[in-house]
Amino acid sequence: MIFFSVIIEALPFILVGVFVSSVLNLFLSEELIQKLLPRNRVLGIIIASLLGLLLPLCECGIVPVTRRLVQKGVPVYVATTFMLATPIINPVVLLATSVAFGLNPKMVWIRLGVAFLVAIITGMVLSFVLKDNQLKESADVHCDCCSGHTAEAGSIFSNLFYMLKGACSEFFEMGKFLIAGAFLSAIAQTTIPYTALSAVGQAPFLSIIVMMVFAFFVSVCSSADAFIAASFGSSFTLGALIAFMVFGPMIDLKNTLMLYHSFRLRFIVTLLLVTVFLCVSLSYLSNLLVGGL
Amino acid sequence: MLLRIRFSFDAFIKTLILFGYLIFLTWLIGTNDIQLYINPRYLQLTQMTVLVLCVLVIVQALQMIYLKKDNHCHHPSLTLRSWLGYMPFLVSLFLAFYLPSSTLDAKLVGTKGLNTGVIAVSEPELADFAAAMQQMSMIEVTDQNYINVISALRLQPEKYVGKQITMTGFVYKDLSFPSSNLALVRYVTFCCSADAVPAGILCQVDDEQKYPIGTWLIVRGTLALGGHQQKTVPLIAVEGVTPIAEPVQPYIYP
C-alpha cells in the first residue's frame, strides 16, 4: 500500500527528471557548458548549489539530470553539489518547510543553512579527491549509433520524437531503482517502530544518527519530509530533525540505488562518507548553538 | 541497401509496461481510489502523469517496428540481464492489479507512533481558530477542522474543559494507556500515505473492551483533562458511542 503510494507520488517527478535530462541532452551542447561554466571552481560550486531556485526538481528526479550533466562534461563536483542542494534549496520545499514548522520558523533557516553548507563543502572536498567523471563506462550503453540519423534531421518534430525516445529509455533505466527503493522503504516504514526511535530522541548525538538512518531508509519525498519531521516534534532534538531534513533529501535508499547504477562505487562511498560526516557535525553544532543542549 | 522490417520484442515489453501503468493510474483516478494513496491536492500531478504516459506509450509503440538498414547497427536482444531489469516493473504491475486498494490499518499506529504534538498549522491561523473555538459550547470535529481542533486542544487543553464534543475516528489502544481509555485516531496524510501520521485524542469509555482496535466510531462526550506518559493531555469523557463503517475518505488531508 505504502509501496504504491510512493511510486504514484514519485512518478510525476521522475518523469520531469528524465524529461529535463533528455532536453538537456538535446539542447545543451558541451561547448555551451564550457562557455557558461565559470573557470573558478568555488564560483562553479556556489552557482550549482543555487540552481534549485530556478529548477525546482525534487530528489526523485535529480539523479538522471545529474548523470546527464556529468556526461555532458560538467565537472563531477559541480554536478554533485547541484544534486545535493537542489532538493532542499528550492522554493517548493522551502514553502513546505515553513508551513510544517509554522510554530517554529527558525527551522526553515537552519535547514537551509545546513543544506547549503553540506552541499558546498562536499563539492569542495570532492573537487580535490576525485579526478575524472566517475561514471561507470557501462552507463553509456544506450548509444546513439542507431538513432543518430533521426537526431540530425533537425526538424522540430524529429527533435521532439528523439527527446521522447530518450526520456522513455531513461525512465526504464531509472524506474526499476525507484520501484526497488519504494519497496524497501515500504518495508522499513511498516517495521521500524517509532517508539524505538524516540527512546534515544533526546540524546544530542545518538538522536542525529538514528534520524539519519531513518531518513535513508524511509525515502520520503523532500517536499513532504518537513511534515514528518514536524510530527516528530518535541520528542527529538532540533539537530536530529535538521539531520533528517537535510540528509534525507540528499542521500536516500532509492537515490543511492540510482547512483550506483550510473557512478563508480568509489565515488558513492566517498560521497556518502563526506555527507554523513558533514550532516552529523553540522546538526550536532546546531544542537549546541540553537537547540539549547 | 537492403531494408528489412523488424519487430522489437524489447520495445514491445516496454510498451506493455507503460500501458500497464497508464491503465493502473487511470483506473485509480476513475474509481476515486486514488485518494487512498495520495492527497487529492496532488491529483492534477497524477492526471498529468497519465497524459505523459499516453505520449510515451505511443512513442514506445512506434519503436516496436523498425527498418533495419544494414548489419552495422546492433539492437540489443533480450538477454537475461534485461529481463531482470524489467522484473521490478512487471512485479509491481502484477501487484498493482492483484492486490485490492486498502487503507492503512490501526495496527500500523503502533509502528508509526501515535502523534502527540501540534500538527503543521500556521501560528496566526491556529490562534484565530482557538479563539473561535473557546467561544463554542459544542465542538463538532469534521474532516476540515480536524487538525486545527486537535492542535488547539493539545496546546491549551485546560481552556476547553467542560465543552461538548463529537468526533469520528478509529479505535487504537496500547499498553501505555490508562485502563478504560482508548484513543480515537485518524491518519493525517500530507502527500501520500507514506507520510501519514496517526493523530488522535484519548477517550475515557466504561466498556472499553467492547471496541476492538480498528473499529470506526462516532463519539460524543465532554472534554476533560487526562494524563498520558507524564503529560497532561486532552481527554473526552465519553457519553455516547455509535459504531460506523469506515468512511469513504478515511484520511485527513490538510
Please sum up the structure shown.
The complex is a heterodimer of chains A (293) and B (254). By secondary structure, chain A is mostly helical.
Give descriptors for this structure.
heterodimer, A: 293 residues, mainly alpha, B: 254 residues, alpha+beta, OB fold (Dihydrolipoamide Acetyltransferase, E2P), 2 domains, 5-stranded mixed beta barrel, 8 strands
Task: Report the helical percentage of chain B.
Answer: 25-40%
Strand content of chain B: 15-25%
Number of helices of chain B: 6
Q: Gyration radius of chain A, to the nearest Å? A: 19 Å
CATH topology tier name of the largest domain in chain B:
OB fold (Dihydrolipoamide Acetyltransferase, E2P)
Distance between the first and last residues' Cα of chain A: 39 Å
Q: How many DSSP E strands of chain A?
A: 0
Q: How many structural units, i.e. domains of chain B?
A: 2
Largest sheet of chain B: 5 strands, mixed, barrel
Overall SS class of chain B: alpha+beta
Query: Could you list the spans of chain B in which at least 5 consecutive residues all have pLDDT below 50?
Result: none
Question: What would you say this structure looks like, in words?
Answer:
- The complex is a heterodimer of chains A (293) and B (254).
- In chain A, helix 1 runs antiparallel to helix 9 (156-191).
- Mean pLDDT of chain A is 80; it is low at 139-153.
- With 293 residues, chain A is an all-alpha fold.
- Chain A has helices at 2-27, 30-36, 41-50, 59-71, 76-85, 91-100, 106-129, 148-153, 156-191, 194-198, 206-218, 225-232, 238-250, 253-262, 265-289.
- With 254 residues, chain B is α+β, with helices and mostly antiparallel strands.
- A 5-stranded mixed β-barrel of chain B has the order 4-5-6-8-7. A two-stranded antiparallel ribbon of chain B has the order 1-2.
- In chain B, helix 1 (9-31) packs antiparallel against helix 2, helix 1 (9-31) packs parallel to helix 3 (80-98) and helix 5 packs across helix 6 (146-155).
- The model of chain B has no long low-confidence stretch (mean pLDDT 82).
- Classes of the chains: A mainly alpha (293), B alpha+beta (254).
- At the A-B interface, helix 1, helix 9, helix 10 and helix 12 of A face helix 1, helix 2, helix 3, helix 4 and helix 5 of B.
